């Protein structure tokens, strides 16, 4: 049978458990490609904190140029003990997100069948939302500095930057996504105290929302949202928020689904001018690396989102179904109070794909 479509995928496993979960994800992706008759042309790059230890950088000087030629980037995590933990974001993650204008950070939080949420009364129908985080502006632009930091009068400054263009485009993305889901957007903000930057954020979103009269819209302060994640998670559908707030809330979203090891995410350039990057929400977890106990589901699910982005929606849906079936069978890793190894979870998901 003739192969219908080919996709060039850059793989950056990174550090720590990235070197276990990304190979697991590739195994699932290849099995899916075989079933749906498309081809993944995979090229692996050893970028990350390990690369930094050898070269003083997380990727080569022409790293963005190299990666720009691919259809997508499949990424694990970066960071190792002994490497300054401010460097992975500055020299790798933010560099890619900003360099490739990946202004949408898409992080679904959904309780899988067979997994008990730490919220004892919540079921699968109660926890199913997406955090849409503005990914290139806001609080993480790293504009600032120190002034005589070791002196008695020393001080430090970090500036947040919010542009009309940046707010409008992430808001449009969130409202369009809500139209494909349950028609509700919650703007999570803190404009009652950040009375310039986030008041501007709110006002631009208010203007954008006028174009989507079919979508229910609410504004919620982040302290209230944090409480509602725990107490009334069922009220959320699409959460639209800033870079910093979204970073925190999406981890809380992962936690209430049972484990950060389950959480997928993607860094999307919707216009497809540049490749998008797909990664689990957790870190490199070097303390458990090499033990075969890392949860591969977040990485595998991120791979499914990558396939959907590339146009293989049916294949993506089948991977998610295979994940659900595996979880329902209680084939779970230690973070979910199971005893199954990384490779065994992967093998079972592949079996379901083939069946």
Question: Which SSEs are present, and which pair or pack?
Answer:
Elements: E1 5-14, H1 18-36, E2 38-44, H2 49-55, H3 63-67, E3 72-77, H4 87-99, E4 104-110, E5 128-134, E6 138-147, E7 155-161, H5 164-180, E8 184-189, H6 197-209, E9 216-221, H7 222-231, E10 238-241, H8 243-256, E11 264-268, E12 276-280, H9 297-309, H10 313-328, H11 342-354
Parallel strand pairs: 1-2, 1-3, 3-12, 5-10, 8-9, 8-10
Antiparallel strand pairs: 4-5, 4-11, 6-7, 11-12
Helix pairs in contact: 1-9, 1-10, 1-11, 5-6, 7-8, 9-10, 10-11
How would you describe the overall organization of this protein?
The chain has helices at about 20-35, 50-55, 65, 85-100, 165-180, 195-210, 220-230, 245-255, 295-310, 315-330, 340-355; strands spanning about 5-15, 40-45, 70-75, 105-110, 130-135, 140-145, 155-160, 185-190, 215-220, 240, 265-270, 275-280. It folds into two domains: about 1-110 and about 260-355, Isopropylmalate Dehydrogenase, CATH 3.40.718.10; about 115-255, Isopropylmalate Dehydrogenase (3-Layer(aba) Sandwich). With about 350 residues, the chain is of the alpha/beta class. The radius of gyration is 20 Å and the shape is globular. The model has no long low-confidence stretch (mean pLDDT about 95). Helix content is about 40%, strand content about 25%. The protein contains eleven helices and twelve strands. Strand 11 (about 265-270) and strand 12 (about 275-280) form a beta hairpin. The strands form two sheets. It has a ten-stranded mixed β-sheet, with helices on both faces.
- Distance N terminus to C terminus? 20 Å
CATH architecture group name of the largest domain: 3-Layer(aba) Sandwich
Q: Assign a percent range to the helix content.
A: 25-40%
β-strand number: 12
Strand content: 15-25%
Number of domains: 2
Element-by-element helix/strand order: EHEHHEHEEEEHEHEHEHEEHHH
- Biggest sheet, spatial arrangement of strands: 2-1-3-12-11-4-5-10-8-9
What characterizes the major β-sheet? 10 strands, mixed
Low-confidence stretches: none
Assembly classification = single chain
CATH superfamily (homologous) name of the largest domain: Isopropylmalate Dehydrogenase
CATH class of the largest domain: Alpha Beta
Task: Count helical runs.
Answer: 11
Return the CATH topology of the largest domain.
Isopropylmalate Dehydrogenase
Class from secondary-structure proportions:
alpha/beta
């Amino acid at each position: 049978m003739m192969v219908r479509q080919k996709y060039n995928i850059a793989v950056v496993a990174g550090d720590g458990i990235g070197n276990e979960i990304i190979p697991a994800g590739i195994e699932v992706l290849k099995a899916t490609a075989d079933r749906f008759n498309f081809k993944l042309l995979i090229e692996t790059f050893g970028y990350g904190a390990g690369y930094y230890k050898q070269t003083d950088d997380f990727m080569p000087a022409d790293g963005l140029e190299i990666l720009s030629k691919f259809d997508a980037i499949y990424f694990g995590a970066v960071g190792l003990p002994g490497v300054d933990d401010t460097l992975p974001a500055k020299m790798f993650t933010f560099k890619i997100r900003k360099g490739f204008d990946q202004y949408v950070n898409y992080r679904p939080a959904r309780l899988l069948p067979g997994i008990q949420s730490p919220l004892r009364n919540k079921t699968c129908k109660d926890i199913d939302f997406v955090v849409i985080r503005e990914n290139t502006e806001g609080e993480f632009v790293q504009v600032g500095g120190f002034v005589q930091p070791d002196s008695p009068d020393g001080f430090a400054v970090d500036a947040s930057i919010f542009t009309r263009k940046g707010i409008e485009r992430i808001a449009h993305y969130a409202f369009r996504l809500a139209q494909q889901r349950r028609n509700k957007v919650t703007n999570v903000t803190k404009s009652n105290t950040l009375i310039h930057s986030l008041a501007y954020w709110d006002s631009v979103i208010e203007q954008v929302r006028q174009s989507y009269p079919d979508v229910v819209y609410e504004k919620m302060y982040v302290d209230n949202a944090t409480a509602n994640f725990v107490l009334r998670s069922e009220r959320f559908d699409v959460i639209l928020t800033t870079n910093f707030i979204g970073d925190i809330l999406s981890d809380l979203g992962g936690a209430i689904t049972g484990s950060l090891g389950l959480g997928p995410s993607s860094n999307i350039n919707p216009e497809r001018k540049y490749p998008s990057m797909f990664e689990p929400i957790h870190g490199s977890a070097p303390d458990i690396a090499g033990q075969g106990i890392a949860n591969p589901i977040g990485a595998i699910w991120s791979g499914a989102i990558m396939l959907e982005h590339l146009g293989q929606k049916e294949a993506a849906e089948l991977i998610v179904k295979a994940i659900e079936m595996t979880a329902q069978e209680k084939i779970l890793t230690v973070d979910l109070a199971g005893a199954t190894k990384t490779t065994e979870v992967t093998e079972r998901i592949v079996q379901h794909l083939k069946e």
